Amino acid sequence: MALTIHRADLLLPGAGRAPVPDGAVLVAGDSIEAVGGYEELAAARPAARVRAWPGVLTPGLRNPYGPELLEQAYHPDPREAGELGTEPLTGDALAALEMTDARWGASARRGVRRMLAHGTVAVAGSLRRATVADAVARSGLGVEERRARPPGRPGLDPLAGQPVEAAFVLPPLGFEGRRADFAVFGVEVPPGGDLYAALARAGAVRCVATVLDGRLVHRRA
C-alpha cells in the first residue's frame, strides 16, 4: 500500500485540538494512518513519499450549498467565457439558457473542480438531478444531509459567512482509519496570532492543495 506523508508549516486538526507546528498527516491508501509532528512520522515510516506544503493543513471543508451551487447554478465552459463570463449563472441568466441533462452534468463537473480548488471535500444538501449526482459521486466528493437551506448567499468559499471550525468536516484529523480528506491553505500566521482569524481573512481561495480519499485532487500551480 502506498504511503504518503503530507507535511505543512502548521497542522490544525480541528475540533478544538491544538495546532501542531511542522505537522504532518501520514496517508495509507485512502485512509489516515497517523497525525503528528513531521519528524516523528518520517522516522516511523522512512520509506513514505513526502509532499511538503506551505501554509496550514486542516480538515477538508464542507460547502453547505450543494444543491444551490450544482443544481441551481450553471458553471460556464471556458469556451463560453466570452459570451457568458466565468462566474456561476443563476436567476434570469440561468433561465435564458437551454439546459439539458448533459449540460447540467458538465456544469456540475466544472463546479466540483472549482469546489475542490477551494478545499471542499463534501457538500451538504440532497442532489436530485441524476447527471449532477453522478458527477459528484464520480468525483468522490462527499454528500451530507442538511435539515434546511442555510442562510446567506451561496458561494464557493466555505470559510465565508460561518465560523472556520463549522466549515471543517468531521471527525477531526487524528482518527486512525479516517478517510484521508484534508486541505492546505497558503496562510501565514504571525507568532501569537489568531489562526482561525487568519484563515477567515484569507478565505478558501488561498487553497494550495486538496486531498480527497487519499488522492491529490487539486494543487495550485
Describe the 3D structure:
A hairpin with an 8-residue loop joins strand 1 and strand 2 (20-21). The strands form two sheets. Strands 1, 2, 3, 4, 5, 9, 10 and 11 form an eight-stranded mixed sheet that branches. With 221 residues, the protein is an alpha/beta fold. The protein is built from eight helices and eleven strands. The two termini are 28 Å apart.
In short:
The protein is an alpha/beta fold.
What's the overall average pLDDT, rounded? 95
Question: What shape does the CA trace take?
Answer: globular
Low-confidence stretches: none
Number of strands: 11
What order do the helices and strands come in, and which of them pair?
Layout: E1 3-11, E2 20-21, E3 23-28, E4 31-37, H1 38-44, E5 49-59, E6 61-63, H2 66-70, H3 81-84, H4 91-95, H5 101-116, E7 120-124, H6 130-139, E8 142-144, H7 164-167, E9 182-185, H8 195-202, E10 207-212, E11 215-219
Helix pairs in contact: 5-6
